[in-house]
Amino acid sequence: MNFSDSEIVNSIMTDQGHKAAASPEQADIVFVNTCSIRDNAERKVWDRLKYFRSVRNKNQQDQIVGVLGCMAERIREKFLDEEKLVDLVVGPDAYRDIPNLLAQVDDGRKAVNVILSLEETYADIAPVRTTGNGVTAFVSIMRGCDNMCSFCVVPFTRGRERSRSIDSILDEIRQLSENGYREVTLLGQNVNSYNDNGTTFAELMYRASLVDPEMRIRFSTSHPKDFPDELLSIINERPNICNYIHIPAQSGNSEVLKRMRRPYTREAYLSLIDRMKEIIPGVALSTDIITGFCGETEAQHEDTLSLMDIVRYDLAYMFAYSERERTLAHRKFEDDIPEEVKKRRLSEIIELQMRNQAALNREEIGRTHLVLVEGESKRNAAQLSGRTDTNKMVVFDRMDYQPGEYVKVRITDRTAATLKGKPLGRSSIQAFSQSEYADLKAEPVRV
Ligand code: SAH
Ligand code: SF4
Asked: In this protein, which residues make up the domain named Radical SAM core (predicted)?
């Protein structure tokens, strides 16, 4: 989401005639786009700001430093209390005001705008995508969140939920397709509640998939509480909608989920996973897990481990609970799990996930996937890397393939996080879906 927001700010700055500097150290203006989700995310930002203060003291005395995003919204004017740290503070809904705020700073004043909006979606601002790979892009479809999970600061820093108009989303996808992009990820904190005057997320996905049949469509994040079967059928039926769902569980215990204000039980979550696997054969799943939430007992932690073992996630983002001010958990519950217990539980969760992931990756050997090439492999310039429809990273010999092309790849080996394969020739979503796709969806071939 921040990556996508930075592209909006890039667009606003480019419109004002600014250009990207060779490095942040040489820039006249530095923006630090920030995250407040956990304390360690904020700590990194403080370190970064202090680093820029030292750069300023050394050789860039006039450098302007701005804090953008969630931390700006959370900490507000207090950023200005620290000497020579920050000149402007801009919340997630105030990016259009940046030119005015910069003018204030030029006048020698500090500038702050942290007003949250009920309408702002930046729908008319075309993001400037200079830092991406030119093949995959994020498209923001909604902002804010109304869910109020008890641990989460997002509703306070990003404000009320609002959906961007479907027409502006489809236009952006069309333009990306014309500019050679091959994949978009539709972004929102809770995409299932997308609602543009009655248009649902399922409808948006369907129409997005029609824009360009050779454009892959992904989405993130969906909430387990309102995932309709209709959407699952659309994902299954449209070849260019990827068979990969990020569906955060947070915990495997119903009581903990209740305290988290996640309105589903362990059983409801597991039956949703069953429906996903049934309606979309071969679907890949990923999750977010918080460990050590207020009052979590050892038995409740075990429930999370067992849930992860039942689902067998292809990928998981796992976090130790970090208490955030203003949230319901901060007001109502005690952050009573000692740090070392959180750490131990987190490492148990990570270990289990790594084992499951390794087993799932072993099962991939021998399968043929359609891989969208994203660019050169980080480790080896003679190889390319790209993703399968199921979002797994694959590396293979470069031959004469190019980023942005679809290549049929047979998986021959794997490491902890990556699959290795042998390229079998160029293909397309449509060609692949009529041949191999059917096999891929059949029972996995075990070797
Ligand atoms: N809207 C998304 C999540 C956005 S935040 C969703 O509901 O799925 C990304 C992840 O950060 C969350 O899913 C949660 O696992 C984690 N997270 C949020 N608040 C946290 C906190 N206070 N401590 C630790 N992890 C947290
Ligand atoms: Fe936070 Fe819950 Fe909203 Fe996700 S759905 S952003 S976890 S409040």
From this structure: 131-359
Residue 118 forms part of a structural domain: no
Sign of the CA dihedral with 317 first, then 321, 323, and 326 last: positive
**Binding-site sequence positions for [4Fe-4S] cluster:** 145, 149, 152
Q: What spacing in Å lies between the alpha carbon of 289 and ligand 2's midpoint?
A: 13
Classify residue 390: in a domain, yes or no: yes
Cα–Cα nearest to 207, from 164, 178, 171:
171
Q: Tens-of-pLDDT digits for all 447 residues of the chain?
A: 999 999 999 999 999 999 999 999 999 999 999 999 999 999 999 999 999 999 888 877 899 999 999 999 999 999 998 888 999 999 999 999 999 999 999 999 999 999 999 999 999 999 999 889 999 999 999 999 999 999 999 999 999 999 999 999 999 999 999 999 999 999 999 999 999 999 999 999 999 999 999 999 999 999 999 899 999 999 999 999 999 999 999 999 999 999 999 999 999 999 999 999 999 999 999 999 999 999 999 999 999 999 999 999 999 999 999 999 999 999 999 999 999 999 999 999 999 999 999 999 999 999 999 999 999 999 999 999 999 999 999 999 999 999 999 999 999 999 878 999 999 999 999 999 987 655 554 444 433
Question: Are 179 and 299 within one domain?
Answer: yes
Q: Say how many Å lie between the CA of residue 193 and the centre of ligand 2.
A: 12
Which of 338, 362, 386 is the endpoint of a domain? Answer: 362
Rounded distance between C-alpha atoms, residue 38 and residue 152, angstroms = 9
262: which strand partners? none
As a whole number of angstroms, the distance between CA 261 and CA 151 comes to 8
From the CA of 378, how far away is ligand 2's center (Å)? 33
Nearest CA to 72 out of 50, 45, 97 is that of 45
Domain holding 413, by residue range, is: 364-438
Looking at the structure of the chain, the number of domains it has is 3
In a domain, 250, yes or no: yes
Which of 74, 189, 227, 321 has most ligand 2 atoms within 8 Å of its beta carbon, as the pocket-test mutant? Answer: 189
Cα separation, 239 vs 42, whole angstroms: 40
